[in-house]
Design brief:
InterPro entries: SmpB, SsrA-bd_prot, SsrA-bd_prot_CS. Pfam families: SmpB. Its main location: cytoplasm. The chain has 165 residues and is α+β, with helices and mostly antiparallel strands. The protein has two domains: 13-134, Small protein B (Small Protein B, Chain: A, Beta Barrel); 135-165. It has helices at residues 20-25, 40-47, 95-107, 136-164; strands at residues 13-18, 26-36, 57-61, 64-68, 89-92, 110-120, 123-133. The chain has a seven-stranded antiparallel sheet. Strand 3 and strand 4 form a beta hairpin. The longest helix is centred in the last third of the chain and has 29 residues, at 136-164. It is globular, with a radius of gyration of 19 Å. It starts with 12 loop residues before the first strand and ends with a helix.
Length: 165
């Protein structure tokens, strides 16, 4: 029976949601840990493990970083205090990090993609990646390489098993 792979946990955090598609579509050049400004029902919904990063992206407007299209469903127990599920949320970074990111995004064909949402010391953090888009042939080569590595590992496992049996 094959072991189930455990999600890679960020340092000191419990993963709420991750964007696996981002690592397939983009080359991640650098990552940043950001805080996020939330309202009460949003944090309760996130603690219940409900969020989707599928279409989310970040932009830099007037010296501030904003996370757009992050879907946090409405919290069932909150009534009139509920939030809009896809509202724009502010990300918290140091000024020098924002300035550096702005320069890197403005210069080339790079974008800011959220890679994961996680809890760290009771606060929600976003792992933000500075990403450069992959071409279709790069994606195919990555899939081919992973398949070949998997086959090599499988073959080595068979040989080792055959020697010990």
């Amino acid at each position: 029976m094959a072991k189930k792979k455990k999600k890679k946990s960020p340092p000191g955090g419990e993963i709420i949601a991750s964007n696996r598609r981002a690592r397939h579509d983009y080359n991640i050049l650098d990552t940043y840990e950001c805080g996020i400004v939330l309202v009460g029902p949003e944090i309760k919904s996130l603690r219940a493990g409900r969020a989707s990063l599928a279409e989310a992206f970040a932009t830099i407007d007037e010296g501030e970083v904003w996370l757009r299209q992050l879907h946090i469903p409405e919290y069932a127990m909150a009534s009139w205090t509920n939030h809009s599920p896809r509202r724009t949320r502010k990300l918290l970074l140091h000024r020098r990090e924002i300035d550096s990111l702005y320069g890197k995004v403005r210069d080339g064909n790079r974008t800011l993609v959220p890679l994961s949402l996680y809890l760290k010391n009771g606060r929600v953090k976003v792992e933000l990646g500075l990403a450069q888009g992959k071409q279709d042939y790069d994606k195919r080569n990555a899939i081919k390489r992973r398949t070949e590595e998997r086959e090599v590992v499988k073959e080595l496992g068979r040989r080792i098993k055959g020697m010990s049996g």
